Protein backbone atom coordinates (compact mmCIF):
# COMPACT_ATOMS: atom_id res chain seq x y z
CA UNK A 1 0.00 0.00 0.00
CA UNK A 2 1.21 3.50 -0.87
CA UNK A 3 0.22 6.53 1.19
CA UNK A 4 0.85 10.15 0.28
CA UNK A 5 1.56 12.41 3.25
CA UNK A 6 1.75 16.18 2.99
CA UNK A 7 1.80 19.31 5.12
CA UNK A 8 1.93 23.02 4.33
CA UNK A 9 1.37 24.65 7.72
CA UNK A 10 3.57 24.93 10.80
CA UNK A 11 6.49 22.57 11.33
CA UNK A 12 5.83 20.51 8.20
CA UNK A 13 8.56 17.94 8.81
CA UNK A 14 7.40 17.28 12.38
CA UNK A 15 3.81 16.78 11.25
CA UNK A 16 4.87 14.30 8.57
CA UNK A 17 7.17 12.42 10.98
CA UNK A 18 4.39 12.26 13.58
CA UNK A 19 1.95 10.93 10.99
CA UNK A 20 4.38 8.19 9.92
CA UNK A 21 5.02 7.28 13.55
CA UNK A 22 1.30 7.01 14.30
CA UNK A 23 0.62 5.02 11.12
CA UNK A 24 3.06 2.39 12.35
CA UNK A 25 0.72 1.59 15.23
CA UNK A 26 -1.47 -0.38 12.81
CA UNK A 27 0.72 -0.90 9.74
CA UNK A 28 4.23 -2.08 8.95
CA UNK A 29 6.49 0.53 7.37
CA UNK A 30 8.56 -0.71 4.43
CA UNK A 31 9.94 2.41 2.74
CA UNK A 32 9.77 6.20 2.95
CA UNK A 33 10.45 8.28 -0.16
CA UNK A 34 12.54 11.41 -0.30
CA UNK A 35 10.86 14.56 0.93
CA UNK A 36 9.76 17.10 -1.68
CA UNK A 37 8.72 20.72 -1.46
CA UNK A 38 5.84 21.26 -3.85
CA UNK A 39 3.48 24.05 -4.78
CA UNK A 40 -0.16 23.67 -3.70
CA UNK A 41 -2.21 21.67 -6.21
CA UNK A 42 -5.74 22.67 -7.18
CA UNK A 43 -5.81 25.97 -5.28
CA UNK A 44 -3.75 29.09 -4.62
CA UNK A 45 -1.71 29.47 -1.45
CA UNK A 46 1.57 31.08 -0.49
CA UNK A 47 2.37 28.03 1.68
CA UNK A 48 4.31 25.31 -0.17
CA UNK A 49 3.85 21.69 0.84
CA UNK A 50 6.30 19.09 1.98
CA UNK A 51 5.24 15.73 0.54
CA UNK A 52 6.44 12.16 0.70
CA UNK A 53 5.09 8.71 -0.04
CA UNK A 54 5.36 5.72 2.28
CA UNK A 55 5.00 2.07 1.37
CA UNK A 56 3.33 0.07 4.13
CA UNK A 57 1.38 -3.11 4.72
CA UNK A 58 -1.64 -3.27 6.98
CA UNK A 59 -3.56 -6.06 8.62
CA UNK A 60 -7.02 -4.52 9.08
CA UNK A 61 -9.56 -3.82 6.35
CA UNK A 62 -9.11 -0.72 4.21
CA UNK A 63 -12.13 1.11 5.67
CA UNK A 64 -10.76 0.72 9.22
CA UNK A 65 -7.36 1.86 8.00
CA UNK A 66 -8.92 4.96 6.39
CA UNK A 67 -10.58 5.75 9.73
CA UNK A 68 -7.18 5.42 11.40
CA UNK A 69 -5.59 7.87 8.93
CA UNK A 70 -8.41 10.34 9.51
CA UNK A 71 -8.02 10.12 13.29
CA UNK A 72 -4.29 10.81 12.92
CA UNK A 73 -5.07 13.91 10.85
CA UNK A 74 -7.45 15.15 13.54
CA UNK A 75 -5.01 14.32 16.37
CA UNK A 76 -2.33 16.38 14.62
CA UNK A 77 -4.66 19.36 14.29
CA UNK A 78 -6.28 19.11 10.89
CA UNK A 79 -9.51 21.05 10.75
CA UNK A 80 -12.65 19.59 9.24
CA UNK A 81 -13.19 20.59 5.63
CA UNK A 82 -15.97 23.17 5.37
CA UNK A 83 -16.07 23.60 1.60
CA UNK A 84 -15.48 21.62 -1.57
CA UNK A 85 -12.24 23.49 -2.34
CA UNK A 86 -8.75 22.52 -1.19
CA UNK A 87 -7.30 24.41 1.77
CA UNK A 88 -3.99 24.65 3.63
CA UNK A 89 -3.54 21.91 6.22
CA UNK A 90 -1.16 20.72 8.90
CA UNK A 91 -1.31 17.17 7.56
CA UNK A 92 -3.01 15.25 4.79
CA UNK A 93 -2.80 11.46 4.51
CA UNK A 94 -4.16 9.81 1.38
CA UNK A 95 -4.30 6.11 0.57
CA UNK A 96 -3.27 6.35 -3.07
CA UNK A 97 -2.62 2.81 -4.27
CA UNK A 98 -2.88 -0.78 -3.09
CA UNK A 99 -1.53 -3.31 -5.56
CA UNK A 100 -4.30 -5.51 -6.90
CA UNK A 101 -7.09 -3.56 -5.23
CA UNK A 102 -9.90 -1.65 -6.89
CA UNK A 103 -12.22 -0.09 -4.35
CA UNK A 104 -14.86 2.60 -4.50
CA UNK A 105 -17.13 4.06 -1.84
CA UNK A 106 -18.37 7.51 -0.93
CA UNK A 107 -15.33 8.03 1.32
CA UNK A 108 -12.55 6.19 -0.51
CA UNK A 109 -11.46 5.29 -4.02
CA UNK A 110 -8.45 3.05 -4.68
CA UNK A 111 -6.46 3.84 -6.69
CA UNK A 112 -6.88 7.48 -5.67
CA UNK A 113 -8.88 9.11 -8.45
CA UNK A 114 -6.39 12.01 -8.84
CA UNK A 115 -3.06 10.25 -8.23
CA UNK A 116 -2.12 9.96 -11.91
CA UNK A 117 -2.50 13.75 -12.27
CA UNK A 118 -0.39 14.66 -9.24
CA UNK A 119 3.37 14.98 -9.63
CA UNK A 120 3.62 15.55 -5.87
CA UNK A 121 2.40 11.95 -5.42
CA UNK A 122 4.07 10.25 -8.36
CA UNK A 123 7.57 11.72 -7.97
CA UNK A 124 7.97 10.47 -4.38
CA UNK A 125 6.29 7.18 -5.33
CA UNK A 126 8.88 6.73 -8.09
CA UNK A 127 11.62 7.00 -5.44
CA UNK A 128 10.25 3.78 -3.97
CA UNK A 129 9.29 1.81 -7.07
CA UNK A 130 8.29 2.30 -10.69
CA UNK A 131 5.11 0.37 -9.98
CA UNK A 132 2.90 -0.78 -12.83
CA UNK A 133 -0.46 0.72 -11.96
CA UNK A 134 -2.55 -2.24 -12.97
CA UNK A 135 -5.88 -0.64 -13.70
CA UNK A 136 -4.14 2.00 -15.84
CA UNK A 137 -1.65 -0.35 -17.55
CA UNK A 138 1.02 2.33 -17.12
CA UNK A 139 3.96 2.74 -14.82
CA UNK A 140 4.40 5.60 -12.40
CA UNK A 141 7.17 7.00 -14.65
CA UNK A 142 4.82 6.97 -17.68
CA UNK A 143 2.33 9.22 -15.90
CA UNK A 144 5.08 11.40 -14.47
CA UNK A 145 6.54 12.03 -17.94
CA UNK A 146 3.20 13.64 -18.89
CA UNK A 147 3.11 16.04 -15.92
CA UNK A 148 4.64 19.43 -15.20
CA UNK A 149 7.11 19.10 -12.32
CA UNK A 150 7.95 22.80 -12.22
CA UNK A 151 8.48 24.05 -8.69
CA UNK A 152 9.00 20.61 -7.15
CA UNK A 153 12.25 20.41 -5.18
CA UNK A 154 13.77 17.37 -3.48
CA UNK A 155 14.72 18.33 0.09
CA UNK A 156 18.27 17.25 0.96
CA UNK A 157 18.39 15.37 4.25
CA UNK A 158 14.70 14.52 3.94
CA UNK A 159 13.05 12.92 6.93
Question: Can you walk me through this structure?
Answer:
The longest helix is centred in the middle third of the chain and has 14 residues, at about 60-75. With about 160 residues, the protein is of the alpha+beta class. The radius of gyration is 15 Å and the shape is globular. Strand 8 and strand 9 form a beta hairpin. Strands 1, 2, 3, 4, 5 and 10 form a six-stranded antiparallel beta sheet that branches. The chain has helices spanning about 10-25, 60-75, 120-130, 140-145; strands at about 1-5, 25-30, 35-40, 50-60, 90-95, 105, 110, 130-135, 140, 155. The mean pLDDT is about 90.
Features:
159 residues, alpha+beta, six-stranded antiparallel sheet, two-stranded antiparallel sheet, 10 strands, globular
Task: Describe the protein's topology.
Blueprint: E1 2-7, H1 12-23, E2 27-32, E3 35-38, E4 49-58, H2 62-75, E5 92-97, E6 103-104, E7 109-110, H3 119-128, E8 132-133, E9 138-139, H4 140-144, E10 153-155
Antiparallel strand pairs: 1-4, 1-5, 2-4, 3-4, 3-10, 6-7, 8-9
- Please write the string of helix (H) and strand (E) elements: EHEEEHEEEHEEHE
State the separation between the terminal residues, measured CA to CA: 20 Å
Helical fraction equals 25-40%
**How much of the polypeptide forms β-strand, as a percent range?**
25-35%
Structural class: alpha+beta
Q: Report the C-alpha radius of gyration, rounded.
A: 15 Å
Total strands: 10
Q: Poorly predicted ranges (pLDDT <50, ≥5 residues)? A: none
Give the rounded overall mean pLDDT: 90
Q: Shape from CA axes?
A: globular
Count of discrete alpha- or pi-helical segments spanning 4 or more residues? 4
Query: How is the biggest beta sheet arranged?
Result: 6 strands, antiparallel
